[in-house]
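Can anyone check this?
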Amino acid sequence: MLLKDIFVNLSIFSFLVSAAVVTRIFYFPIKPVKRSRLLGGCYAGVVALVLMNISIPYEGNLLDIHYIPLILSLIYLGFGPGVVTSAMILLGNLLFSSHLTLDYSIFFTTVLLFLVSFSLLKKPYQKVLLLLIEYVLVVFIMHGFFGVPLSLSFMATLICFLFVCLTIGIWLMEGHNTLYSLMNRLSELNATLKESQQELKDTIRGQQGVIFKFKKVEGKFVVTLCDGQLIRKQQLNPEIFIFSDWTKLIPASLVEPLTLYFEKAWQGHEMNFEQEWPVGKIFLFMLQPILRDGQVIEVVGSVINVTEKKRVEMALEESEREYRLIAENTSDLITVLQVNGKMKYLSPSHQTILGLSPSELIGKDFLTIFDPQDLYRLKEKFARIIVDQRPDQIEFRFQRHDEKDPVQFESRCMPVAGINGDVEYIVIVSRDISERKKAEELVLVSEKLSVVGELAAGVAHEIRNPLTTLKGFVQMFKKGEMDPIYLDIISDELDRIELITNEFLVLAKPQVVHYRLDSISSILQNVITVLTPQMNMNNIQVHMHLDGELPGISCEQSQLKQVFINIMKNAIEAMPRGGNITIRTSKAGGFIRIEVVDEGCGIPPELISRLGEPFYTLKEKGTGLGLMVCKKIIKEHGGRIDYASELDRGTTVTIELPIAR
């Protein structure tokens, strides 16, 4: 009979706990219930009241398990729900207890111990054991205290009853927590799966082409997935292709070739092919078989409209053919350089003009084919083009082995930037200017001789003065007047004559062009030496403000001397009544700046822009070639020349030459 009553109690307890667990899991699986823990505490109190009314009489006392819901409420629901459950047990004692004082004593002592000690341990099993021991001790002690001692058999039965009941309760609650967690996780995975499916669907739908899948069913290819903008732009619903006879939805002429490609893909081959549609469009098909255990289970395909791409490719090919036709048949030399100086492309004209095979030069350093005397200047020029990223012009010489004289070339260098904005290539277009250079040299010589002729009178006057002195000393020597101090004077006068004649000869004598490192101050000093006689004749004073700390420049000294002589001669002629010429040098960034300032009649502003044009001159008997030659020489040196003038105030000529690197 006792076992039957215990079984009934345990069954009712299990049913009540299971009902709550099942309701929570299956009726409120995801959406949280407001104040669910407090509701759980109330439900635990209801269970305690039910258990209180089905207590089992045994040995004059009651086998009561109505404190088990309180233990479970405290452990699994927390302090607040535990207090709610305690309040309902207190109400039950008030309504149903036949030993109110004893039951109140057990209640308050037990609840106080539970509330104090349930947070001391972390693991549920440890808490259950602690609270169970406390409850058993309180029941045993309080019954003894109130003169109602409990037998050992009663206590053993009560402990076993409580332990079995707690085990069932813990098993159900732990199962609830695990199952609830799994349900939540499953629900999250389902939500993630739906989101991923929607994203995949949106991605496929937004794809500019078409994405589709197909498999072979009963010997026929069946489309199982199909979507993409390419179909939707044709006002078609992609669903019409799925699990339908797709061969009736495309032009009949394309069914056979597409079926053949589908069959090869079904056999496990990746297929990429272009198919032209009857409407004139070209589509790129890509088929990728999906294997499982070595067998193809389906094929994923994509279609892209490449009509415009093919049109662009054909246009590029046509453009490339045209440019190659020009490059391979022009008499100019076309060279493509990498920034490291290696040659990437050379036009066939290199073979014709230079006698060099393009195929043998590709990959070699561009500078290896130049005259060694030009290397320094060329390296500096190419470095400047790469840094400044601006087109530039350069001249160089090439000595063919079968010709005596070198060939002169003028090259246009254009930097080509890459994706990151840095220069990756330099395209060089070179043209043979040997004949033009010869004509320019004749102009240069003519202008030089003209300058020499104009300076001759001043030089003759400058030489005549020391010669008169020497002649007087010779007459004194004939009379026997031999003072050693006279020999020093004679030596000084001879040195003066030698200096003037040497500078004059340098100016008049044809020079081979060689660029060397030189000082601008030294060049200007030599020019002043040559022009001093003419300046003295015209009552011109020169004032030089030269910066002694200036770096050197790469130049052809005789050409720069000719430039400065031309400019200063113009200044002298602009001041027929005499005046001052001021020469200043300074450093301006990567250049040396030379300023020549006179106090002459000046130049009208509207005429300054034409200075340097051939045969344009402001002089009555001038040719206009002087400033043209000056402009060309300065340009060949990588510099620039500017003019500033005010009428009746004077003219300033500014020349800037690059500092040698």
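Reply from J.R.: I decoded it. The chain has four domains: 2-183, 207-309, 330-432, 438-658.
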